[in-house]
Amino acid sequence: MAHSSYNYTSPQDMWYVLIGIPGLEDVHTWISIPICFMYIVATVGNLFLIFLIVTEQRLHEPMYLFLSMLALADVLLTTSTAPKMLAIFWFQSVNISFGSCVSQMFFIHFIFVAESAILLAMAFDRYVAICHPLRYTAILTSSAIGKIGIAAVVRSFIICFPFIFLVHRLIYCGRNIIPHSYCEHMGIARLACDNINVNIIYGLTVALLSTGLDIMLIIMSYTMILCTVFQIPSWTARIKALSTCGSHICVILMFYAPAFFSFFAHRFGGKTIPHHIHILVANLYVVVPPMLNPIIYGVKTKKIQDRVILFFSPISMCC
Asked: Which spans are transmembrane here (predicted)?
């Protein structure tokens, strides 16, 4: 195809229009109320969880250190998306420069891949705790936990950095309306007047080889955990072992289910799934799991409950 008929636009000069949730513009204000509430709860809840884990010596265990990494990733994910989303809903602040859009895209994908790796690390932690309890402290040392955290960040950076080059290499010719509330890779790529097959293939490959592989390893971990648990003769011990995994399984389902719905709807949904449903799920995805994660762990984990009660008891006594 000849490109000479196109009026090319330099990426550096591009400004995009994020229209929010297409088809639901009239109810943006109403949608913004629960999203704002969930964003505040997610931010405060996760920062408070990090504070509890950092300040309480008894919580300096592998499970809680991984949980603090997850909480930090949740804060970053919601903060990289929700403020702009709310600005669109409240003030019609729909314009965003190409550079800002690409930066937001990178951080969203980077945090998602890193969070997936943290969930895998938490599954590994439960596997070692239940299947090899005598070697738990020897395997998951402070050094090992630090290396796992660094590996999660480095892997995510290596996987997601090419997205920046993949959108920069495309030829743009003035199309600038993104039917979404935030920028993501395929949303930007689809505005190009160019062949985006490389972008599609890389996006699918990343999904399968990073998060897809993480899911397979998490399933393997829990399969081995279940095999070990059902060999325990005592029912009480079985239930106790499974209950320590309950909160983590809830968090895994909340993280992956809407993410993969959004991913496959974007690529294969076509006219089957209404576009506004897909975008609404994508919007809720960046605030609902981060909001619920500290609540689930707070309800399910006795040590965190005890620390919360201890933290608030002097306040209640003062009042």
From this structure: 31-54, 66-91, 103-124, 145-167, 200-229, 241-265, 277-299
Quick one: pLDDT at residue 258? Answer: 82
Q: In this structure, what DSSP letter does residue 59 have?
A: G
Could you tell me if 139 and 128 are in contact, meaning their C-beta atoms sit under 8 angstroms apart? Answer: yes
Domain 15-300, CATH homologous superfamily name and number: Rhodopsin 7-helix transmembrane proteins (1.20.1070.10)
Q: For residue 246, what are the CA distances in angstroms to 91, 133, 250, 269? A: 41, 18, 6, 32
Residues 6+ apart with CB under 8 A from 156: 110, 111, 113, 114, 117
pLDDT at 311: 78
pTM of the prediction? 0.89
> Both tokens of residue 201?
């293939």
Q: Torsion-angle region of residue 92: left (phi > 0), alpha (psi -120 to 50) or beta?
A: left
Asked if pLDDT for residue 2 goes beyond 50, the answer is no
Instruction: Give the integer Cα–Cα distance in Å for 95 and 101.
Output: 10
